[in-house]
């Protein structure tokens, strides 16, 4: 198995991978949109977004829309590279 590159454990979570997959295809996305698309609970999604943000894979901006809090997520260059590496590594597994 040493010929294989390790999969990024941060992206190997189903929900975190789903979040990254969504963010790759849009400029930015609101928390509610991500929650709806992933069918995640608000609490779980919050935790996973924090992990991705701490790793520098996404930027999280918290503002207000009227009086309601608004959280917007955007993939970073580092996150895009990590996602592309993850996909490439998966493809290597499939080809072997």
UniProtKB/TrEMBL annotation:
Instruction: Give the protein name, as stated in the record.
Output: Winged helix DNA-binding domain-containing protein
Naturally occurring in which organism (per UniProt): Fulvivirga imtechensis AK7
For this protein, the record's InterPro entries field holds:
WH-like_DNA-bd_sf (IPR036388), WH_DNA-bd_dom (IPR027395), WH_DNA-bd_sf (IPR036390)
Which Pfam families does the record cross-reference, listed alphabetically? Answer: HTH_34
Which residue numbers delimit the Winged helix DNA-binding domain? 15-94
């Amino acid at each position: 198995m040493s010929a294989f590159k390790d999969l990024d454990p941060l992206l190997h979570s189903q929900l975190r991978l789903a979040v990254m997959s969504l963010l790759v295809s849009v400029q930015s996305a609101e928390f509610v949109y991500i929650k709806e698309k992933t069918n995640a609970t608000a609490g779980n999604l919050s935790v996973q977004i924090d992990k991705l943000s701490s790793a520098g894979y996404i930027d999280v901006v918290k503002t207000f829309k009227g009086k309601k809090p608004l959280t917007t997520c955007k993939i970073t260059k580092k996150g895009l590279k990590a996602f592309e590496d993850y996909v490439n590594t998966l493809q290597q597994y499939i080809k072997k």
